[in-house]
Specification:
The complex is a heterotrimer of chains A (about 800), B (about 260) and C (about 190).
Chain A: E1 13-16, H1 20-23, H2 29-36, E2 40-44, H3 50-54, E3 57-59, H4 66-79, H5 85-91, H6 105-108, E4 115-116, E5 121-122, H7 149-157, H8 162-169, H9 173-184, E6 193-197, H10 199-202, H11 207-220, E7 231-233, H12 240-245, E8 252-253, E9 257-258, H13 268-275, H14 285-297, H15 323-331, E10 337-341, H16 345-348, H17 352-359, E11 364-369, E12 392-397, E13 406-409, E14 414-418, H18 431-446, H19 452-459, H20 473-481, E15 488-489, E16 495-497, E17 526-529, E18 532-535, E19 555-556, E20 584-591, E21 598-603, E22 668-669, E23 689-694, H21 710-713, E24 720-724, H22 725-731, E25 738-742, E26 747-755, E27 761-763, E28 766-768, E29 770-774, E30 800-801, E31 813-819
Parallel strand pairs in A: 1-2, 1-6, 2-3, 6-7, 10-11, 11-12, 23-29, 24-26
Antiparallel strand pairs in A: 4-5, 8-9, 13-14, 14-19, 15-16, 17-18, 20-21, 22-30, 23-31, 25-26, 25-31, 27-28
Helix pairs in contact in A: 4-8, 4-9, 4-11, 8-9, 15-17
Chain B: E1 5-10, H1 19-28, E2 54-60, E3 70-76, H2 85-89, E4 95-97, E5 103-105, H3 115-119, E6 126-128, E7 133-135, H4 141-144, H5 151-155, E8 161-165, H6 166-182, E9 189-191, E10 204-208, H7 224-234, H8 239-254
Parallel strand pairs in B: 1-10
Antiparallel strand pairs in B: 1-8, 2-3, 4-5, 6-7, 9-10
Helix pairs in contact in B: 7-8
Chain C: H1 5-20, E1 43-48, E2 57-63, E3 66-72, H2 85-88, H3 91-94, E4 104-106, E5 114-115, H4 118-136, E6 138-142, E7 148-160, H5 167-180, E8 182-186
Parallel strand pairs in C: 7-8
Antiparallel strand pairs in C: 1-2, 2-3, 4-5, 6-7
Classes of the chains: A alpha/beta (about 800), B alpha+beta (about 260), C alpha+beta (about 190).
């Protein structure tokens, strides 16, 4: 999230595309506060939910048509001249000129320049800026040149008219125009709007482009880096942000460093050359990478051995190892052992039937969780004969947060410490205890190995504090933060850091092995004050009138900044765009960096910018410091195109009305043996309805933390599907009766909840029904509450993925509905 | 009596999350209850001896100011009436009024006669088979006597449930109704705020966005005992029989569930 | 860290003030002696809600190593002491009869779990990791140009999870997996 929940109260308009009232109710209080102050709330969602109930306008759109919708808004804002011109000209790449060979889908019937139909990839050589003699991008600040990003953008989205939106999304033209006017007119120096999203936008075969399209709208309206603006990414689980920062992800190392690839990154030098850009803050990548290697391998990482880089695994391909790859490969027998720690893929992952079948091919499975999940007991699944399952299964009981020390990073990048309130019962341990216990026993098994491939693992430290198998969590946090590996002095010989002292800032990391950092963006979370370790994640200073963003409560990465890109809250000269929307500004009279200097960025937040770089200095007017060109990008770098283009979901009831390119041309579709991933053709009469999956306030993800808790499990009668009165009438279904929902992958039996909150859409003149099915249920639950058990919704979904990060498409696919249990 | 305390439930701020329902259950250690099908999200269908806070979900086509579907969400609770039928009906003195104006059942004194159950115009009081006593919301009696607000009000993420002194909350509520009317919620109204109104006013009062019956609330609640007197003049049946009839009618109404 | 009794009183004061929303309420504990409060003599710990990523601050009250109440911490700037139903139910993650408290083992083809000593489990699990790694480790392979390069990769063990463990635990798992050579390394960011 670029912003902060507290700051949402400053919005003039909020467009919730996620179901925030249900899935983030306590965060939603800031939306309610904004409403009390006069802001309007628009809820864009195929279903009418508790968020819609609180909204001024509910705008249902057919699942899978988000880019068409956002493209329509971009078109509207440009056509009606409602965009924030000064912001767009100076703070984005709208004025940059693009290679003359580049063409958009407007000219190529849904494709960008360079598509190779045989390989299903793009040759991206024309997707680039025109540069001058010095290599700088050529610009036209009048935005008139037809090769400017702005003109290309305008031309690209000129097809996304209100009439087209009506046909594609099923939003009546007048309703679309009402919302477009309301949202886009709250722009400019005096006004800002925020947009929320969650997995509603990401779980699509164009998930990443969905997010880009909303970010582009926010850039166009000048809504990034300013109070009340922002891209409000709402994470679904307590530490999705932290697990992503610390990179429990196939393609990265902690701190968003690319996980090395065999062919691109054979050695550290090549890795750093390829992955370090010429501009933007990532020029520091070598410091972050070397400090990470030092944190992993300790003293064994030296300059002479490339800091142990050769020990890191090298990926065979970028198209491998993601969640969906994992279960396809497991089904094909490539994977022998599997750790499921605090995750229940037997219920929660796409194509869950395939997931369970894949686990039956394993030699061994280890599950670490609070409860005995369906994953731990997949061999007890209904209809399975346990004797046929040869997988050996280990289960370790895990401690919930209340029973251990540690920190969690919330959706606004806020790292918060929690205390161990009680000692867990029996053999229950924290996950950290287990990881260190396992590491120590493995190191014992490898002790004495002379093989180079074992040296890195043997050098890695897993002891933190006095008890090897019970690590002190604050010591681990200190390693994440980073320390000096030797005394570090300044140029005058004065001691800056003592050996072992935690570092205050990632600005002090070096690429010579003198510093460590397990995750550079967290540096500053633990510091030393007067010789004592201070854990800023445990900071407990509430907000007050002078500090509404509460900088003393926890620590927000990076550098305790609460609103990212906040340089954009001031104009070119460094003044707030308006008094009402001030955040940080340039104070020309404040003491500067050196005694003889004057001028500093000051205000209500920590500047996400060089605090002493004057607005009129070189790059002093470019707020997007993480980007190579230092400006917000309308023209982007994704695998499926520099501008988001609407394609239909892989399974859709309709042809693509915007072009002849039906689905994302570079989409990932896995071929799985034994008909384990069958797909319905476009407009299939066997699967005529659109289905979307979703979550409820009273349940959590795959249900492990809710179905076993009577206080939560009793709040819903049973697993259900929401269907419209219109569809119920067509199929003769009564509210409360059992129905069967079928897809080409599987079927589930659920209770029909017939509701006015679901309405059919009119798509290109035809009625298209959509249903919604929550995905929290599995066959385990509370005995006294039979409704806490239910069929697994993800048995319906498919193994298909976005071409950038391979996320599944569970928010839009097709199904059939039959009365009764069939 | 010290200054009267109240809970003001502003349904225009309710997002139906049921934090109140669970926080109540957690603090008061109320047991598990098997839900029945109510046609929608609401569970349970009515107040019970294990459910003191209950969020109601009502679909109301055309109910929004712009003519869109409204989903009326309302966290219902014991009203702690100024003229409390349960208290009047209690033969043992187990039901009493605290110095804060709230109405409580002393579990040590309750003899399980259930007169209070039939006397409540709102179907709030329930009988617990295992303890043999009547149960209902205590206004978190233990908490308010120790400087803490009720668990439901504390948990509420959107301040739909507000806790404080009654006179202050009534003033605030009146302003809120005017604001909502100006915003186009033409049926916005207070329920039980008026101390001169029905039952002498409710110490848990509400702001509703539709007429009370839409929320399964009686439009003009009266004490059953008074109904009984009127009914006695019109019929030959004994007061006890009629009282039982009232009980049954309340249970039926309570079971109606949301309007799906 | 255990909060002192004074902190507890401070929190309770903050609670009353917070809920009364600026009425300056001062509830004289008239019946305090007669009406006991279960958390009065309890220890209070600072918690963070383990459900969604709003990260509501919680106060966890314990007595005799048992959690007796969990509610919102009113000082939390972005949540102000409020909770949703899941946050309000957090106590049942700990106090729950369905919760297994022993390590369990299921032999291949068996239809039941067996309780095993935790140390036995650790040894067995370490053995499986070791043997699988030894058997399937890929030290070198040919790159796209046919040149043999060092890849130090272990594809035969996959690791999934978790967004419900702490940052420090995520880091330890990243470190363990990556130093062992594991590449199937994911969590539910996309689920």
């Amino acid at each position: 999230m670029t912003t902060n929940l507290i700051d949402m109260q400053n919005s003039d308009v909020i467009m919730a595309t996620s179901n925030m009232a249900e899935n983030h109710p306590v965060g939603f209080q800031w939306v309610m506060k904004a409403k009390e102050r006069g802001a309007k709330l628009i809820h864009v969602d195929p279903r009418y939910t508790r968020t819609s109930a609180a909204a001024d306008i509910h705008l249902p759109l057919r699942s899978g048509t988000n880019i068409a919708f956002f493209g329509g808004l971009i078109n509207y804002a440009i056509a009606k001249n409602l965009y924030f011109r000064d912001y767009v000209v100076h703070y984005t790449n709208a004025s940059f000129l693009i290679d003359p060979a580049f063409k958009t889908p407007t000219d190529l019937d849904g494709l960008f320049t360079g598509y190779d139909p045989a390989k299903k990839v793009y040759d991206r050589s024309s997707w680039k800026y025109q540069v001058d003699g010095e290599g700088n991008p050529r610009r036209d600040n009048t935005l008139k040149d037809p090769q400017t990003v702005f003109q290309l953008l305008k031309r690209h989205y000129s097809r996304y008219t209100p009439d087209m939106i009506e046909k594609v999304c099923g939003i009546p033209k007048a309703k679309f125009e009402e919302v477009a006017q309301l949202y886009c007119s709250n722009s400019g120096p005096e006004k800002t709007g925020a947009i929320t999203y969650a997995l509603n936008l990401t779980q699509h075969t164009n998930g990443v482009e969905n997010i880009r399209s909303l970010c582009m709208l926010q850039l166009l309206l000048g809504n990034v880096g300013r109070p009340g603006g922002g891209v409000v990414a709402l994470r679904g689980h307590a530490n999705v942000q932290g697990a992503t920062d610390l990179e429990l992800l196939y393609h990265e190392l902690p701190g968003y460093l690319p996980m090395p690839l065999r062919d691109q990154h054979p050695d550290l030098k090549t890795y750093l050359e390829r992955e370090t850009p010429k501009g933007g803050f990532w020029v520091n990548r070598p410091k972050f990478m070397v400090s990470l290697l030092k944190a992993f391998y300790g003293d064994a990482a030296t300059k002479d051995n490339d800091f142990g880089y050769q020990w890191l695994p090298k990926r065979a391909s970028a198209d491998a190892y993601s969640h969906q790859h994992m279960f396809v490969d497991m089904y094909e027998g490539k994977i022998k052992g599997f750790l499921a720690d605090g995750q229940n893929p037997a219920v929660g992952g796409p194509n869950a039937k395939l997931t369970r079948a894949a686990m039956a091919k394993l030699d061994w499975l280890l599950v670490v969780d609070i409860f005995l999940t369906e994953t731990a007991e997949f061999w007890k699944a209904p209809g399975i004969n346990a004797q046929d399952i040869k997988t050996e299964v280990f289960f370790l009981p895990a401690a919930p947060a209340a029973e251990k020390d540690g920190s969690l990073t919330n959706t606004m990048r806020l790292i918060q410490w929690h205390d161990k309130a009680v000692t867990p019962p029996g053999d229950v341990h924290s996950d950290a205890d287990f990881f260190c216990s396992l590491a120590h026993r493995l190191q014992k098994l490898y002790a004495g190995s002379k093989k180079d491939r074992d040296k890195g693992f043997l050098a890695a430290n897993f002891t933190y504090g006095a008890k090897p198998d019970e690590p002190e969590m604050v010591e681990v946090l200190k390693e994440i933060n980073g320390v000096a590996t030797e005394d570090i002095t300044d140029k005058d010989g004065k001691l800056v850091y003592r050996k072992g002292q935690p570092l205050n800032s990632f600005a002090h990391l070096t690429d010579d092995g003198k510093t460590t950092s397990g995750c550079w963006i967290y540096t500053g979370v633990t510091v030393e004050v007067d010789g004592k370790l201070v854990n800023k994640a445990a900071g407990r200073k509430p907000a007050d009138d002078k500090d509404y963003l509460a900088h003393g409560w926890g620590f927000a990465w990076p550098a305790n900044r609460r609103i990212l890109y906040n340089r954009a809250a001031a104009d070119l000269r460094g003044k707030p765009w308006s008094e009402k929307k001030k955040l940080i500004w340039w104070d020309a009279n404040a003491p500067g960096q050196k005694p003889e200097d004057k001028g500093k960025w000051v205000g209500l937040d920590v500047p996400d910018f060089n605090a002493f770089l004057a607005p009129d200095a070189k790059n002093g007017d470019k707020p997007f410091i993480m980007r190579t060109d230092l400006v917000g990008g309308f023209f982007g770098p994704l695998n499926d195109g520099p501008f988001p283009e609407h394609y239909e979901p892989v399974e859709s009831p309709t042809k693509n009305l915007l072009s002849k390119t039906q689905i994302n041309p570079v989409v990932k579709i896995w071929k799985v043996p034994d008909q384990k991933n069958e797909l319905a053709p476009v407009g299939s009469p066997d699967y005529p309805y659109v289905i979307t999956t979703y979550r409820l306030t009273e349940h959590h993800l795959s249900g492990v933390m809710s179905r076993y808790l009577p206080m939560l499990a009793e709040l819903h009668h049973s697993h259900f599907a929401e269907i419209s009165h219109e569809l119920a009438r067509e199929l003769g279904i009564e509210n409360g009766e059992k129905i069967t929902v079928l897809s080409p992958r599987g079927k589930v039996h659920v209770t029909a909840m017939v509701t006015h909150r679901i309405k059919p859409f009119t798509i290109n003149g035809k009625t298209v029904h959509q249903i919604g099915v929550p995905w929290h249920w599995g066959w385990k639950g509370v005995d006294e509450l039979p409704g806490s058990r239910g069929d697994i919704t993800n048995d319906l979904s498919a193994t298909v993925g976005d071409p950038n990060v391979y996320i599944q498409e569970t928010k839009a696919f097709v199904c059939n509905v039959k009365k009764g249990v069939v | 009596m010290v200054r009267t305390l109240a809970m003001f439930t502003d349904t225009s701020l309710c997002i139906g999350c049921r934090a109140c329902q669970v926080a109540c259950k957690q603090w008061n250690e109320l047991g598990l209850e098997v839900p029945e099908w109510t046609g929608g999200y609401q569970n349970h269908a009515h107040f019970t001896d294990k459910t003191y806070r209950l969020v109601r979900f009502i679909e109301e086509p055309g109910g929004k100011p712009n003519g869109d579907l409204a989903w009326l969400l309302m966290s219902d609770v014991c009203k702690h009436c100024a003229e409390a039928g349960c208290l009047d009906a209690c033969p043992t003195g187990a039901i009493y009024r605290t110095e804060y104006g709230t109405v409580n059942i002393n579990q040590d004194v309750c003899n399980g006669c259930r007169y209070c159950v039939s006397s409540c115009p709102f179907g709030v009081v329930s009988f617990n088979e295992s303890t043999g006593t009547a149960k209902k919301c205590t206004f978190c009696n233990d908490r308010i006597h120790n400087g803490l607000g009720p668990a439901c009000a504390k948990a509420c993420p959107t301040e739909s449930i507000q806790f404080g002194f009654r006179d202050e909350l009534v003033g605030k509520a009146a302003k809120r109704v005017e604001k909502l009317k100006a915003m186009g919620f033409k049926d916005a109204q207070l329920y039980g705020a008026d101390a001169k109104g029905f039952l002498g006013g409710l110490n848990a009062f509400f702001l509703l966005l539709a007429k009370p019956s839409t929320y399964d609330l009686p439009d003009n609640p009266r004490l059953p005992q008074r109904n009984v007197m009127v009914d006695s003049l019109l019929s030959i049946g004994s007061a006890l029989v009629v009282g039982l009839g009232v009980l049954l009618s309340f249970r039926e109404r309570g079971k109606g569930g949301p309007h799906a | 860290m255990s909060l002192s009794r004074r902190d507890f009183l401070k929190f309770s004061g903050a609670t009353a003030a917070g809920v009364a929303a600026g009425t300056g309420i001062d509830l004289a504990p008239v019946e305090a002696a007669a009406t006991s409060l279960k958390i009065k003599e309890a220890k209070a710990f600072a918690g963070v809600c383990p459900y969604c990523a709003v990260g509501c601050g919680q106060l966890i009250y314990t007595r005799d190593n048992k959690i007796i109440d969990i509610e919102g911490n009113p000082d939390t700037p972005h949540t102000l002491g409020r909770l949703c139903p899941k946050g309000a139910a957090t106590i049942q993650l700990s106090n729950n009869p369905l919760r297994p408290t022993r390590a369990l083992y299921r032999a291949p083809g068996s239809d039941k779990w067996e309780e095993k000593p935790i140390e036995w489990m650790y040894e067995q699990i370490a053995g499986r990791y070791h043997d699988t790694r030894e058997k399937y480790f890929i030290e070198k392979e040919k790159d796209k140009d046919g040149k043999e390069v060092t890849v130090n990769r272990l594809e035969a063990i996959a690791s999934l999870g978790s967004a419900c463990i702490d940052n420090e635990e995520c880091y330890l798992l990243s470190k363990l997996n990556r130093t062992l050579g594991i590449v199937y390394h994911e969590h539910q960011a996309r689920v």
